Amino acid sequence: MNTRRDFLKISGLASLGIGFSLVLKPLHAAIGKTGETAVAGAPGAPTRDKAAAAAIDPLAHQWRMVVDIEKCIGCGLCAKACKKENKVPPEPYYYRTWVERYVIKAAPPGTMEMRGETLVDSPNGAIDGFPPSAVPVAQVLKSFYVPKLCNECADSPCTKACPVGAAFETPDGVNLVDKTYCIGCGFCIQSCPYGCRFLNPTTRCADKCTLCYHRITKGLRPACVEVCPTGARIFGDLQNTAPDNPVRRFLKEKKVQVLKPHLGTNPKLYYAGLDKEVR
To answer: What is this structure's pTM?
Structure first.
């Protein structure tokens, strides 16, 4: 229970959630259009003057991130940079992005199976990298790393579950949380099928990856993309039709997939080289 709210207040807000959502969403849209703040309450969100605000037109962009699994080496620099940039609590289990290691064992001799057991780990979100696998090399069929973060769903169950309209989507395609309205009820956290949201113990509000919205609205790349040494994370504007647009070029040249497509959430985070074991 959020210590800043008593039970009756939360219950009352939840019962009126639909009405609040209809009232607050125009406010979020106005925030996105004016650009006067990157997003209310976002870590590091800069206050902009009118000249700077005029240069930001969210309607002219559609931000996307793609991940090339074959290039990820599990160094964890992305997760470490994210924690620092976005002031994510230092304790374990609080991450806006993390990296998972998948070790697929060879099938036992004498069986008709193509592969054996799959082991998945992510010690401290991979911020300190990975220790050697406990599986002997001779027993490993395949191993790889998978960066995880908010899937920026076009049909986000998290946004729909918010009873006060604090969870919303910007005109340029990023799902955010307005901390000035979030009551810390946790409904969005429970609704996220990818486990990408958490209750920030400092702000007592829902927290998640924002694609470093405070950076990309200033022409910068997300911190995780900036530090990736192998180019496993690629970020850009889908509406940018220039031939050197890295996102458009990647989507044209690679076969990409999304996580849990059967849920109908329509993720806007794309993966290349996604193994069937990844969920």
So the answer is: 0.80
